[in-house]
Design goal:
14 helices
Length: 308
């Protein structure tokens, strides 16, 4: 297991290099001058040219990228062009907000998705199964930003029950968390149903039923545990995706998280902030996937034996 974890961590290095190079390339060739952004639109041209030289923006593209990698290795991702503060400090100050939103979104998705998927599988082709699958299809198809706007229109504008955005008390997190949770719940529901249908047709399930084991015990103890591996995969991917992909939701609700910070940085061509945020989220996503793989070993002993 230790060798497997070490190998996965080493494989993270080329992933981060590839991601950072791609983002650095995109940010370098997008319109806009960071030096002018820092000094302002009315700054003298001589001052802009001097600052560009000091910042190394006149160096060739590859030289700039290698300087970025060299500094990043020692944990120096530079300072924000707009605020002048260290970018990682800003990321760490906002990440708890994104983490809370992602955790609540996944909890909502699990609470809705797994029970609904189990019921749909055990009552296949029933009215409840059809309604559940239609709801899941709608949940997968709805873009987060559209669902967010509809929830704001309903619960904030018309009913006035919940705030429409910002971060002001526990009520502020309800709509963003529901927006993230609904889409993930639809995916978890479909995966749980599919996995449960495959498991409950196995011979050992029929044997348990033939022995007179209660249906509730057959489903929860025998079927669900063996159907959890693909479901855990989906939950892990959804959680990692919510950590790095809640950009639209955070923007719709003006949620002070990493996603919204990254959108603002892209608009202002704040390259250090964008690069640091992307690298940080890529590492977070990879660690979540690694934890999911390790969790497999505790769910299925057959997988644990492969690491010995």
């Amino acid at each position: 297991m230790h060798k497997y974890i070490l190998r996965r961590l080493l494989l993270l290095i080329p992933v981060l290099l590839g991601v950072s190079f791609l983002v650095f390339t995109i940010m370098s060739f997008t319109p806009g001058d960071p030096a002018q952004l820092i000094l302002g639109e009315n700054a003298p041209r001589e001052a802009i040219l001097k600052l560009r030289t000091e910042m190394g923006l006149d160096d060739p593209f590859l030289i700039q990228y290698f300087k970025f990698v060299k500094n990043a290795i020692v944990g120096d991702f530079g300072r924000s062009y707009t605020t002048g503060r260290e970018v990682f400090g800003e990321i760490f100050s906002r990440f708890p907000n994104t983490l809370i939103l992602a955790v609540l979104g996944v909890i909502i998705a699990i609470v809705i998705g797994i029970p609904l998927g189990i019921i749909s599988a055990t009552k296949q082709y029933s009215l409840l199964d059809s309604v559940s699958m239609i709801a899941a299809l709608l949940g997968v198809s709805m873009p987060n930003f559209w669902l967010g706007l509809m929830l704001i229109l309903t619960f904030s504008v018309k009913l006035g029950w919940l705030p429409s955005g910002g971060f002001d008390g526990w009520k502020s997190i309800i709509l963003p968390a529901v927006t993230l949770g609904v889409g993930s719940a639809a995916i978890i529901t479909r995966m749980t149903r599919s996995s449960m249908l495959e498991v409950i047709r196995q011979d050992y399930i029929r044997t348990a039923r033939a022995k007179g084991v209660l249906e509730r015990v057959v489903i929860t103890k025998h079927a669900l545990k063996n159907a959890l591996i693909p479901v855990i995969t989906v939950i892990g991917l959804q959680f990692g995706g919510l950590l790095g992909g809640a950009v639209l939701t955070e923007s719709v609700y003006s949620w002070p998280g990493v996603g919204r910070m990254m959108v603002d940085a892209i608009r202002q061509k704040d390259t250090p902030t964008v690069l640091a945020a992307v690298v940080f989220l890529a590492v977070t996503f990879s660690i979540v996937n690694l934890l999911v793989d390790i969790l497999y070993a505790y769910v299925d002993p057959r997988i644990k034996s492969q690491y010995k």
